[in-house]
Amino acid sequence: MVIESRAPSCEANRSRDAGGIILGIESTAHTFSIGWVDGLGVPGKSVSAFVRPVKGGIHPREAADHHAKHAGNILQELLDNDVQLQDVKAIAFSQGPGLGPCLRIGASVARSLAIQLNVPLVGVNHCVAHIEVGRERCDCDDPVLLYASGGNTQVIARLDGKYRVLGETLDIGIGNMLDKFAREQGIPFPGGPKIESLALEWLHDNPDPSLEGLELPYAVQGMDLAFSGVLNAALNLVEKGVPLPAVCWSLQEHTFAACVEVAERAMAHAGKDELLLGGGVACNERLRSMCQIMATSRDSTSHVPEKFLCIDNGSMIATLGRLQLLWGSETPLDESGVRQDLRTDETPILWN
Ligand code: ATP
Ligand code: FE2
């Protein structure tokens, strides 16, 4: 395998003008969102609606019904306030991976708009969109990416024209684990932000905290990760009467350290000196600071985009759609079917 020594600078991407607005439609799971970027890739606002299951996890059909119900109003809100239809140059949409019924709603909206406006359709890989929005926003060219979201936990680097997964979760995504732990405590979806605030509460009351009595299994297996064992052990601690804020703190410390350890090893193996965080869990300040500490300790830099671009949003889909459009990777209608199991490393990286 030929390995690119270094990815080209993403600065060059910004000097190319797509000549109009790119709309991006996100509908992989719990979020339906339409956002946009201008011709130079500067993100505009995303308008979003979120499925918030009262009980249990996300039901794909119910989520799809939610997306179908909100799609029209979301588009209208964007058109009323931000975007003129005549300025739209292309329609990008999440083609996969994700929940089939949800993906199909986004794809149908995208196809209808592209046909109606007579503009190109661009199907994009949701995971790669999390990466590219970070590269574009943070000015980092060739990072190792720690992609930590609800459904995914992957450590990725660009090698030989694709984003290669160097390590990943062998069971559930880290965000999914946090959401499940939270749900068992009666905390509604998404659980990650509440776990973060409970952990802070524990730190506030215990400025010099110890892990004694709060030990959990460590989730690293070679370059891979696993979270269901940690989840069960954390639930057991609560059952035994350990205070919930203490368990939340310990849960974050153990699982974030595991992710950062794999990311550090990936940086060493792949010879990269930039780390980029992406996905919804990248909103977490403790994870951000662990990444910063690790990167600084190896004379490297750590980057993370604004929080509204870490969670699922239409602007990140538009960001990748613009790059694909500029590099001639449009999606003909007959190839615009959704790809539920699309892998990060299936998408050729044609752009800088
Ligand atoms: P993907 O399809 O990429 O897996 P997703 O459907 O999980 O994405 P995202 O919006 O990328 O959606 O991530 C949502 C996840 O992020 C949820 O699990 C949520 O609990 C978690 N999350 C959001 N904010 C925080 C936070 N501050 N701390 C920890 N986790 C967070
Ligand atoms: Fe996501």
| Total individual domains | 2
- Can you summarize the main beta sheet? 5 strands, mixed
The fold-level CATH name of the largest domain is: Nucleotidyltransferase, domain 5
User: What's the helical proportion of residues?
Assistant: 40-55%
The averaged pLDDT comes out at 94
Low-confidence stretches: 1-5
CATH superfamily caption of the largest domain: ATPase, nucleotide binding domain
Give me the CATH architecture of the largest domain, please: 2-Layer Sandwich
Describe the structure.
This protein has 352 residues and is an alpha/beta fold. The protein folds into two domains: 2-134 and 309-346, ATPase, nucleotide binding domain (Nucleotidyltransferase, domain 5, 2-Layer Sandwich), CATH 3.30.420; 142-305, Nucleotidyltransferase, domain 5, CATH 3.30.420.40. The strands form three sheets. It has a five-stranded mixed β-sheet, with helices on both faces. Strands 8-7-6-11-12 form a five-stranded mixed β-sheet, sandwiched between helices. The longest helix is centred in the C-terminal third of the chain and has 27 residues, at 244-270. It is built from eleven helices and twelve strands. The chain is globular and about 60 Å long. The model is unreliable at 1-5 (pLDDT under 50). Bound molecules: adenosine-5'-triphosphate and fe (ii) ion. Adenosine-5'-triphosphate binds at residues 28-30, 126, 130, 149-152, 173, 175, 178-179, 190-193, 196, 279-281, 283-284, 311-312.
